[in-house]
Design goal:
The complex is a heterotrimer. Chain A is an alpha/beta fold. Chain A has 3 domains: 11-181, Dimethylsulfoxide Reductase, domain 2 (3-Layer(aba) Sandwich), CATH 3.40.228.10; 188-377, Rossmann fold; 424-535, Barwin-like endoglucanases (Beta Barrel). Chain A contains 22 helices and 21 strands. In chain A, the strands form 6 sheets. In chain A, strands 16-20-17-19-18-21 form a 6-stranded mixed barrel. Chain A has a 5-stranded parallel β-sheet with strand order 3-2-1-5-6. A 3-stranded parallel β-sheet of chain A has the order 9-10-11. Chain A is globular, with a radius of gyration of 24 Å. Chain B is built from 21 helices and 14 strands. By secondary structure, chain B is α/β, with parallel strands linked by helices. Chain B has 4 domains: 94-144, no CATH class; 161-354, NADH-ubiquinone oxidoreductase 51kDa subunit (Rossmann fold, 3-Layer(aba) Sandwich), CATH 3.40.50.11540; 361-439, Ubiquitin-like (UB roll) (Roll); 444-523, de novo design (two linked rop proteins) (Up-down Bundle), CATH 1.20.1440.230. Chain B has helices spanning 13-23, 43-54, 59-69, 73-80, 102-106, 161-164, 177-185, 187-196, 209-217, 239-246, 248-262, 276-289, 307-314, 343-354, 384-391, 420-425, 444-458, 464-482, 489-503, 507-511, 514-523, and strands at residues 33-34, 94-99, 116-118, 130-134, 140-144, 224-230, 264-271, 293-297, 338-342, 361-368, 374-379, 396-401, 407-409, 434-439. Chain B is globular and about 75 Å long. Chain C has 2 domains: 1-117, Ubiquitin-like (UB roll), CATH 3.10.20.740; 133-271, N-terminal domain of TfIIb (Single Sheet), CATH 2.20.25. Chain C has 7 helices and 12 strands. In chain C, the strands form 4 sheets. In chain C, strands 2-1-5-3-4 form a 5-stranded mixed β-sheet, sandwiched between helices. The chains are: A alpha/beta, B alpha/beta, C alpha+beta. Chains A and C meet through helix 3, helix 18 and strand 13 of A and strand 10, strand 11 and helix 7 of C. Strand 3 (64-66) of chain A pairs antiparallel with strand 1 of chain B, so a sheet runs across the interface.
Chain lengths: 537, 527, 276
């Protein structure tokens, strides 16, 4: 945020917080060890507030849980912002010195009275007020979110709505307060940091930045197009239009992981050429023309990964990969060689040192230092730099050159609207013992896997639609249908249902979900699907 | 509330009502807002209420109490299984608990079929004694026999004077004269007077009360709490019961004075579960007088008489003693500065403020082979022989001073002065004022085995020396008593005595070998 | 502040424990229930030391140093108590997979069998009720570490507790139900802190049963968990080119030795692959 694609804070600050707001995050199940840090704070007396449509295991821990309607995060955030302003918790000095766009933002939240917030989100006004006052009055506040914010068609606007709250109260850029997007995969942060996103070069450097591009072009002896590439949803869009005819998929299972699965399979199958590099013959790999067996990150590869707190840590090899499986670096470099390019040494440390020479964020992170310090948080400018616990300290300088912008954002309800034919809101999320499409987590046996394929329903909905607790049910959306067992969850309110995406071979939840995609982030709206239930005799 | 997996069994409506009466009415259900509000400290009262309603704590009741108070079910189970009087297996609504402890054993106690043996019920002057618990819509407990002659001694009384004069324990006094006096003096002056008095704690540790009060009064951390330790469970002890039953207003007035002097926001009086009449009369006195005092009732655990175990119990945890330091005056109940005083200690305070009797007296609970068992009050320093004469003791073979945690005296040691120093010099302790007389025909081996069994039963199980040491002690004694010895039992017992004394966490383990050791080495029993 | 341990006066930081001070001076103090990442419960009493002017011995693991404190860590009294603690534990508990405890028995010349063959023990059947870890409470010394790790110190799941009392005190789920019916989330953070092998990964248990557990041949390799983005450090215990157990380093700030079910037990997917 504000130009740096990483959370601003550290786990250490989480432990020291006096308020933690989890917004659209069920960290208790999805980020269990991060939640340990949050619980250290809570057991010390910190307040925990959870905003989530479901009363999740994280919400069970909360001093206050706000059960908003799916897709009403912006109205809630705007109502909180307005109340913070009304109650005098805004940090006017900080706003004046370090931010821009405040007036337009203030205008934009004016309609969002507590009552209007209650009307649109379903959360009682006094709870919205309590959230606003708690956040406004906290000294060290961590505002944290996950996919509940980002798996929407307006994901980036949702994030802006939360950033606005931190800017409004000056709770960013200083020790103890910050914004934490908790990362869902072990190296999704590192992948982005290395340039595996459409508009960035390694180290957060913009492809549109001529000087940055020139530096990389000189180092690599190749020219780099200045235009951003496509994100995943954009690629599927391009496949649909026949503009993208071949794909090289590394360590992803989009045939099962994408929203609107039937469409994803159709488009992948229609490609002229599909190469899949993976540790398993996934559903996507089964569609491929060429499969390149890869070594697993766990135990079979050397390198680094970067965590949610921007901590770069070493991954180490313990034994040889099975059969013909090869390290990702080796495969890519061999591919390069066969295409006529020598990409250099395949030794992971050499590759990393090349990154250090080009990315100022990583410049000071030698393998030796990563080992010695137990990882380093970027930015780390040189070998005397311990790394950064938090980002954007510059916002507290006397004079702020590069001000942090408020972004006025408007409510835009989920694309997949509820109506008489599809009256129930289905939302999705992770379970503690499972992970993504189950490629990894399906490999071990656990008592917690039990019931993983169920759809969770409120008892009231179960009775209303004639679906028994434990009974079979057909779930129909505007895109497809699946059949599974239903389980009553007394913590779900009527009108809301829940499924996960972990068991696609048994229950292909993504047959139901919508590929309504945020144009800026490319994330689909997994969190909001309109469904109906049909009992199966 | 933690991410609890709750017990699936549902409570009955009766259980639900009983638990709700403790936990309060549940917040109205909202599917939009929830607030976590753990109230673990009500766990033991809730379990007690459920058991008194249906006779035992069913899985449904355990789960419901967990849910209402936001206590993890496993933790609630751990707490419930700690207390001997909480039943987690089905049993009838009416249960007879028969005392098989020292004094009642001497009186020939026998456990009829279907009844439960019980450690000392604190009714030693009416031995053999028992208690019947009756669960139902109007639960109650009956002490058996229900009454005894009030006081065997009528003259020279100080703490017991009001009782001897026939006060009405159910009517408040015309005025709380000592409390009025305290308010005239102000807290500082009250502290000075108590400090200037010779008052030492009567619970067993004999710590100067004024010093303790001042330490709490000076603590900047707030709030401060007062805890009256009325978990009188030392076998042979019943003095606090008599005081609470017969002079409840005197006790709560004394507590109010202590709270006033030490800046306590709230007081708790923790009474053992076996004293139903004391519960009733204290609760009545609290209700009538309006002091901010809460009655808490134990559930059958001797170790809860240890002050930090008592805090754990009030807070809704297993009654496992905490490590000291920090001491309660700094970190006590709910982690706050806390005054802990025994009932008898507190009842001395009004006399200090009113300056109505300068004598330093001490209560003694006399039972066993005596003609007039009961509660006696003597000036400190009076010879033991005089007390035995007052009580009409048979010529004793031995006298147990201080209860199971005390020690045995030989007939030639009975002229010792009943003072802290006198007891120490004779290698014994006044403890909680227990004097059990063993006549010529008494079975001392039986007594020693019972004491060993008592500590094995009552060990909380936390530390190794006490948890396993009390078992090995009992095993060695049984080998000696049965004659099936290995030959090294005396050496084993000496080692156990040392490790329990030196390395146990709390006073229970540290004293668990005292009486056994004195029986062997002072009396020559099993030696 | 200044304290004297075994005749040597030294400066130690205020707030440190006698154990910290002794370690600083290179004095090896035995501990069983103490864990670097856990709140001291001081229940095993094997770390007791003699502090002058203190009536009983005091636990080194939790007693804070005081100015001028004089401590003896190897006096006859201390040695006797430590020996007795080990004799008592050894007489009641199977310590065969507890290397530290066995070493203390030797060090203090403890004779656990001196109490005779009829001594009460905690012997009982192994509880194998899931595929991830097993519980053999005949090896449990009741150090409370697992309860602490499951409770406020780390995991806050509270699936287990100490139930019962006295010699009958034991680690238990609610109503003693099997793990799959309990609140257990299989993070294995209890297994990680168990000092006696009473709690053991099923993978280790099975290899031991088959006589194929060869710890001396195992390599330990540190890496990062392949699941979510928290960045937990894993230590892979590798035998015959296969992961046989996963732990996490105590001294790493992200995990402090803790993992979730995926990190600790979710590694098997890499081993289900067969060469083509």
């Amino acid at each position: 945020m504000f130009g740096a694609g990483g959370g601003t804070s550290s786990y250490e600050e989480t432990r020291a917080a006096d308020l933690i707001v989890l917004w659209g995050s069920n960290a208790r199940e999805a980020h269990p060890i991060w939640f340990h840090h949050a619980l250290k704070a809570k057991n010390r007396g910190a307040k925990l507030i959870v905003v989530d449509p479901r009363r999740t295991p994280s919400a069970q821990w909360a001093d206050l849980w706000l059960g908003l309607d799916v897709g009403t995060d912006i109205p809630l955030a705007n109502a909180v912002a307005r109340e913070i302003l009304e109650a005098g918790f805004a940090d006017i000095e900080f706003i004046g010195r370090a931010t821009s766009g405040f007036e337009a933002f203030r205008e934009s939240v004016q309609p969002w009275t507590l009552e209007e917030g209650e009307r649109v989100t379903g959360v009682p006004a006094d709870a919205i007020r309590e959230l606003a006052h708690s956040y406004g009055s906290a000294t060290n506040a961590q505002l944290c979110w996950t996919l509940g914010i980002t798996e929407h068609h307006n994901a980036v606007d949702n994030v802006f709505a939360l950033i606005n709250l931190a800017l409004l109260t000056g709770k960013v850029g200083k020790w103890g307060s910050g914004l934490q997007p908790l990362r869902g995969q072990n190296n999704v942060q590192g992948g982005g940091d290395m340039g595996a996103i459409p508009n960035k070069l390694p180290g957060g450097q913009d492809v549109a930045d001529d000087a940055a591009r020139a530096k990389f072009e000189a180092a690599w002896g190749a020219s780099i197009p200045p235009n951003p590439g496509l994100h995943l949803s954009g690629m599927f869009e391009a496949m649909e239009h026949g503009e993208l005819r071949a794909a090289y998929v590394v360590g992803e299972n989009p045939a099962q992981g994408e929203a609107d699965q039937a469409r994803a399979e159709r488009l992948l199958s229609g490609l002229d050429h599909l190469v899949v590099q993976d540790i398993f013959l996934t559903r996507t790999a089964q569609l491929a023309d060429v499969v390149l067996p890869a070594a697993a990150t766990l135990g079979e590869a050397e390198g680094t990964v970067t965590s949610s707190e921007r901590r770069v840590q070493r991954v180490r090899k313990a034994y040889a990969a099975p059969g013909e499986a090869r390290d990702d670096i080796e495969i890519v470099y061999e591919l390069g060689r066969r295409l006529g390019h020598d990409l250099g040494s395949t030794k992971p440390e050499d590759v990393w040192n090349e990154c250090r020479s080009l990315s100022p964020w990583h410049a000071g992170m030698t393998y030796a230092r990563l080992e010695e310090l137990g990882g380093i948080q970027w930015p780390c400018a040189d070998e005397s730099d311990p790394g950064a616990l938090f980002l954007h300290g510059r916002l507290w300088d006397d004079v702020v050159e590069d001000r942090a912008p408020f972004q006025a954002v408007e409510h835009d309800p989920p694309v997949d609207a509820l109506d008489d034919d599809f009256p129930l809101r289905l939302t999705t999320g992770r379970r503690l013992e499972s992970y993504n499409t189950g490629v990894q987590s399906g490999g071990y046996s656990s008592p917690l896997h039990v019931g993983g394929t169920d759809i969770l329903l409120s008892p009231a909905d179960g009775e209303r639609y004639g679906v028994a607790d434990g009974g079979r049910v057909r779930i129909v959306s505007r895109r497809g249908a699946v059949e599974t067992s239903a389980r009553y969850d007394p913590d779900l309110r009527a009108g809301l249902a829940f499924m996960n995406l972990h068991f696609p071979d048994e229950v292909a939840t993504n047959m139901l979900t919508i590929d309504a995609t945020d144009p800026k982030s490319g994330t689909a709206e997994f969190k909001a699907t309109a469904i109906r239930l049909e009992p199966v005799a | 509330m933690p991410d609890l997996k709750l017990l699936e069994a549902e409570p009955t409506q009766a259980e639900r009502d009983a638990i709700d009466a403790v936990a309060g009415v549940a917040d109205p259900f909202s599917d939009r807002v929830a607030r976590s509000r753990p109230r673990r400290h009500l766990l033991l009262p809730a379990l007690r209420a459920a058991q008194r309603r249906v006779g035992w704590v069913t899985p449904g009741a355990l789960g419901y109490a967990s849910r209402r108070l936001e206590v993890p079910p496993a933790d609630a189970y751990g707490v419930a299984t700690f207390y001997a009087l909480i039943a987690l297996e089905e049993r009838p609504a009416e249960v007879l608990h028969v005392c098989t402890d020292l004094s009642c054993k001497l009186a020939g106690a026998e456990v009829p079929p279907g009844a439960h043996p019980s450690p000392c019920l604190g009714l030693c002057e009416r031995a053999p004694a028992s208690m019947r618990t009756i669960a139902g819509p109007e639960p109650r407990e009956e002490q058996i026999p229900p009454t005894s002659p009030l006081l065997p001694q009528t003259s020279g009384l100080k703490l017991l004077r009001r009782i001897a004069e026939g006060n009405d324990p159910e009517s408040p006094p015309a005025e709380f004269a000592a409390l009025e006096r305290a308010r005239e003096l102000g807290p500082e002056r009250v502290l000075e007077l108590v400090k200037a008095s010779p008052l030492l704690g009567r619970g067993g540790a004999a710590f100067p009360t004024g010093v303790k009060w001042e330490a709490v009064a000076r603590q900047p951390a707030k709030p401060h709490y007062l805890v009256c330790n009325a978990d009188e469970s030392e076998p042979g002890t019943f003095k606090d019961r008599v005081l609470m039953e017969q002079d409840p207003f005197g006790l709560i007035e004394s507590m109010a004075i202590a709270m006033y002097a030490t800046g306590c926001e709230k007081g708790f009086v923790y009474v053992r579960a076996e004293y139903p009449l004391a519960h009733e009369r204290l609760q009545h006195a609290i209700d009538v007088s309006g002091f901010d005092i809460e009655l808490r009732i134990g559930a059958g655990a001797y170790v809860c008489g240890e002050e930090t175990a008592l805090f754990q119990s009030i807070e809704g945890y297993r009654g496992e003693p905490r490590n000291k330091p920090p001491f309660p005056v700094e970190v006590g109940l709910f982690g706050k500065p806390t005054v802990v005083n025994n009932v008898e200690t507190l009842l001395n305070v009004p006399h200090i403020l009113l300056e109505d009797d300068p004598r330093d007296t001490r209560l003694f609970c006399v039972s066993g082979n005596v003609a007039r068992p009961g509660l006696y009050e003597l000036e400190l320093g009076t010879p033991l022989s005089e007390l035995l004469e007052l009580a009409g003791a048979e010529p004793p073979k031995a006298v147990l001073m201080g209860g199971a945690a005390g020690s045995f005296l030989r007939p030639d040691q009975l002229d010792l002065p009943l003072s802290f120093e006198g007891a120490r010099e004779a290698g014994t302790t006044l403890g909680s004022g227990v004097v059990i007389v063993y006549g010529e025909d008494a079975d001392l081996v039986d007594a020693v085995l019972r004491i060993a069994e008592f500590f094995r039963d009552e060990s909380c199980g936390q530390c190794v020396p006490c948890r396993i040491g009390t078992v090995r002690q009992e095993e060695a004694l049984h080998r000696l008593a049965s004659g099936r010895t290995q030959g090294d039992e005396i050496a084993v017992l000496a080692d156990l005595t040392q490790v329990m004394r030196d390395a146990s966490i709390c006073g229970l383990g540290q004293t668990a070998a005292n009486a056994v050791d004195s029986a062997i080495h002072n009396l020559g029993v099993l030696a | 502040m200044k304290i004297t341990i075994d005749g040597v006066t030294t400066d130690v930081q205020e707030g440190s424990t006698i154990l910290d001070a002794a370690r600083q001076m290179g004095i090896d103090t035995p501990t069983l229930c103490y864990g670097d990442t856990l709140t001291p419960v001081n229940v095993c009493r094997v770390c007791v030391v003699e502090v002058e002017r203190s009536r009983a011995l005091v636990p080194a693991c939790s007693r804070k140093v005081e100015e001028g404190m004089v401590v003896h860590t190897d006096s006859e009294r201390v040695r006797t108590s430590r020996r007795l603690v080990m004799e008592l534990l050894g007489s009641a508990v199977d310590l065969s997979t507890a290397p530290e405890a066995l070493a203390y028995i030797e060090r203090y010349e403890a004779k656990p069998d001196r109490f005779g063959p009829d001594s009460l023990t905690v012997a009982q059947a192994v509880k194998v009720d899931n595929e991830l870890y097993v519980r053999d409470y005949s090896k449990c010394i009741l150090c409370y570490k697992c309860v602490e790790a499951c409770g406020v110190d780390h995991q806050n799941t509270f699936a287990i507790t100490v139930a019962g009392r006295g010699f009958g005190a034991h680690i238990s789920t609610e109503l003693d139900v099997p793990l799959p019916e309990s609140a257990c989330v299989y993070c294995g953070n209890c297994v990680a802190v168990c000092p006696t092998g009473a709690l053991m990964a099923k993978s280790e248990f099975d290899l031991r049963e088959a006589g194929e557990w060869r710890e001396e041949e195992q390599a330990e390799v540190d890496t990062v968990c392949p699941y979510c983005g928290v960045g937990c450090n894993l230590t892979l215990h590798v035998q015959d080119d296969a992961i046989v157990k996963v732990t996490s380093p105590d001294d790493h700030d992200v995990t402090r030795g803790n993992l979730c079910i995926k990190g600790r037990f979710g590694y098997r997917y890499v081993q289900t692959r067969k060469p083509a």
